[in-house]
Amino acid sequence: MSQISEQLDRRRTFAIISHPDAGKTTLTEKLLLFGGAIHVAGAVKSNKIKKTATSDWMEIEKQRGISVATSVMGFEYGNYKVNILDTPGHQDFAEDTYRTLTAVDSVIIVVDVAKGVEQQTRRLMEVCRMRNTPVIIFVNKLDREGRDPFDILDELESELKISVRPLSWPINIGAKFKGVYNIFERSLDLFTPSKTQVTERVEIENVNDRRIDEAVGEKDAEKLRADLELIDGVYPEFDTNQYLKGKLAPVFFGSALNTFGVKELLDCFVKIAPSPRPVEAVERRVNPDEEAFSGFVFKIHANMDPNHRSCIAFVKVCSGKFERNANYKHMRSGKMMRFAAPTAFMAQKKNIVDEAFPGDIVGLPDTGNFKIGDTLTDGEILHYKGLPSFSPEMFKYIENTDPLKSKQLDKGLQQLMDEGVAQLFVNQFNGRKIVGTVGQLQFEVIQYRLLHEYGASVRWEPMSMYKACWVDSDDSQALEAFKKRKYQFMAVDREGRDVFMADSNYVLQMAQSDFPKIRFHFSSEF
Q: Would you state the pLDDT for residue 469?
């Protein structure tokens, strides 16, 4: 076996997604704990100790107890190299999450046992379905009162439109929660509430073993046997191939906060989850075991280290081996580039790496060369696709409140827009800058980061706007006529492309019917 194939078999790259507050970041912490990457897991919200979650490292994340940026973490577990991407659950940051899903081979969805499937979970599942990404579901917070596990399974099937198969089963929930029977490995795990200790395990031959009765009591043991019989009758046998095709989701139960059921999830995950898969480029399909290196930028983050005003581009390695100080071609500019200090991550902490293999995420120092979606190769002409910007839904004028800091504001805006948190348009009519986002919370994050990271204070001015869409046409005269007619609604984006700012759905529909030669695009890939 070549070095690349050997490393490929060890790699597991996945994202954790869910609705806000289902326990994504807490689960990430516990997975890191098992991987030995951290020794004390921090709570996402905790006033007693000032230890925050490892993956929520931005100041605003610590204050609000939410994730606003995808963080990347890698650790060794047994013989495997696991890369986790903890994504923001809040819908205002959905675009960051959508892009992250293009860089992973599988996904773990976290569902709250009391709330079931929530809106954001549905939307993210649609993205997984479009790409046939394999999905594992972790039903969290079993130490609190919640719904019947069978009801949860029914809801997962109907809401997420995927077949499910439980691979672990809870014995009671809430105050009477006694543990989980591991169907995948046929063992019983007893629950003792503890945020730092790993629980005890009872080894059993089969489900009729008397040791179950001794451990949980006869009544609960009988109910467990009846439940397991029902599961075998109703749900198909677990089939790894169906899981890898994205048609079947294994379900685990546990409590991430109490470190319960997490090890079962991780042990099963590293056995069944896919290693890096082939990636579609515009030119051809790229297999991960090819010798030549290629990769794409799926995220850019400014100011990971507040002491240095630096940007880092996150590159997903798709094929071959990435080496430090080797020359690679940047497709969009055609330049050759060398990277003296590529880094691997543990949230905000960085280590310099000498080599990386398919599935790994490498951080490259960026001085303004990269944009989201850029491709790097050994020299072959390849363009990876599927990282669009969506047309924003909320718009505000951005006004500088301190004219002496306009240079800092320009730099801050440029770096934050490169990250893809929002989009910047310049109105042709009055030259004012307009920021467009997917959600209200992004405006607060931009304002906060401009002030604290760049020293530029801004205020927002409201504007009524329905939709921004990119316009183009094969007929240049028709396009000119359209731009003249709609002069006060025209803007340009940072690439200099024409954008039509429609202030209502009616105006947009009328424009589409009045100008049949003009094409209106709602995402930036056209």
A: 86
Structure tokens at 323: 């080496």
Compute the average pLDDT of residues 219-223: 83
* Pairing state between β 355-356 and 294-302: unpaired
Asked if residue 290 lies in contact with residue 319, where contact means CB atoms within 8 angstroms, the answer is yes
Say yes or no to pLDDT of 493 above 80.
yes
400 Cβ neighbours under 8 A, 6+ residues apart: 406, 409, 456, 457, 458
In DSSP notation, 457-468 reads -EEEEE----EE
pTM of full prediction above 0.85: no
Q: Is 276 left (phi over 0), alpha (psi -120 to 50) or beta?
A: beta
**d(C-alpha 168, C-alpha 130), whole Å:** 28
pLDDT confidence bin for 221, thresholds 50/70/90: confident
Distance CA 198, CA 46 (A): 21
State which amino acid sits at residue 168. Answer: S
b (16+ CB within 10 A) / e for 176-195: ebbbbbbbbeeebbebeeee
- Residue 40, pLDDT > 60, answer no
